[in-house]
Predict the structure of DDE family transposase.
Amino acid sequence: MRRNDTIGELAWYRCCAPRPVAIGDLARVAGRRWTVEENFQATKSHTGLDKHQVRRWHSWHRWTTLAMLAHARRAHYQRREGSITAAHRPDLRL
């Protein structure tokens, strides 16, 4: 369970695993969700991830893979040029 102190919102995570997992590991994985969501939003706005009209799984898979690759290259070049630093985005360890 997590709580937003400013608005008092509560959120729960339900986790299933084939073997017992330490609570610290579950909390770490749940915390990575925000990074994943931010990266998908950036990919949608910068590389056109949301522009594909899905008709077949294979075309969707190719489009998504290409968009994610373009996002990774863009992040790499921004990091190399210094416009994004590890201090601003610790999740961009390339």
About this structure: The chain has one domain: 2-81. Strands lie at 2-3, 10-11. The helical segments are 23-31, 33-47, 57-81. The chain has a mean pLDDT of 79.
